[in-house]
Design goal:
Blueprint (H helix, E strand, L loop, with lengths): L1 H20 L3 H42 L5 H39 L4 H30 L2
Helix pairs in contact: 2-3, 3-4
Length: 146
């Protein structure tokens, strides 16, 4: 009988401890909202950086074109450089946005109950991130090989 009472006591403690580790739906929603806000801010910053880099590259092209003595080859090089800069910046923005969506998905996964469900959700989120990164890389490389 003493063993039974001890087992029930420790089982109850374990259950209480495990349920205390679970986030409430409100906490989960706050985490998701926080991840979404952070992703939006990072994406905005990356877009601003991209606009500046692209603008600088296009200004260089315009400068090359304005110089009457420059050869067509040097203008073509400047245009190719601008296209590469544009592709690289678009890649950076795409990856930043994909990582933001990944953070949001991970937070949603953390809100799920059940280890198997969480693990499957996280694997799907990771796979989606890898697909998006691969797509962004392919788009960038397509411009570079032109």
């Amino acid at each position: 009988m003493k063993h039974l009472i001890t087992m029930v006591f420790f089982s109850s403690l374990a259950i209480i401890a495990l349920t205390a580790c679970q986030e409430t739906p409100q906490e989960s929603a706050q985490d998701v909202a926080g991840a979404a806000q952070e992703a939006q801010e990072e994406s905005g910053e990356k877009r601003q950086e991209a606009v500046k880099e692209i603008s600088d590259a296009e200004a260089k092209v315009a400068e090359e074109q304005a110089q009457a003595g420059e050869s067509m080859e040097s203008r073509a090089e400047a245009e190719a450089d601008a296209a590469n800069v544009r592709a690289e910046e678009q890649y950076k923005v795409a990856v930043t946005e994909a990582e933001g969506r990944h953070k949001i998905a991970k937070e949603k996964c953390d809100a799920m109950s059940g280890a198997d469900q969480k693990e499957a959700c996280q694997e799907q989120a990771d796979a989606a991130l890898e697909r998006e990164k691969a797509s962004a890389t392919a788009e960038r490389e397509a411009v570079r090989t032109q």
